[in-house]
Write a structure and sequence with these properties.
Helix content: over 70%
Structural class: mainly alpha
Number of domains: 1
Largest sheet: none
Radius of gyration: 14 Å
Number of helices: 5
Strand content: under 5%
Length: 108
């Protein structure tokens, strides 16, 4: 396991990138300028949870349909949150379709 600027193991830092969604992703992106795996998790967190947050903001004012879309986005977000933390914490790199490729490209 490679080290990080925080002194945390990669898997712990990767897991923490997801704990507070896009907010913790931004924090770790600012802190970690060298470790590519942690930067990948930070970017993926920002992209995935940023999109889910935007879906909620955009659709929540719409009666009925907005409620349904926001609820679905929340459930998907919760499932992704758990899966991504478990995968990062167990040293496995899971790429969310679309977001993972972009995060990998930006983390280099």
């Amino acid at each position: 396991m490679a080290g990080t600027k925080t002194g945390l193991p990669e898997n712990v830092a990767g897991l923490l990138c997801y704990v507070l969604g896009w907010v913790s992703g931004i924090v770790f992106l600012v802190i970690e300028s060298e470790n590519k795996l942690v930067r990948f998790h930070a970017f993926q967190s920002i992209i995935v949870f940023g999109i889910i947050s935007l879906v909620g903001i955009v659709f929540s004012p719409i009666p009925v349909l907005g409620t349904i879309i926001t609820w679905i986005a929340s459930v998907v977000g919760f499932i992704l949150w758990i899966v991504l933390m478990v995968m990062a914490g167990t040293d496995r790199k899971y790429k969310v379709p679309g977001a993972g490729n972009l995060a990998e490209k930006w983390a280099k």
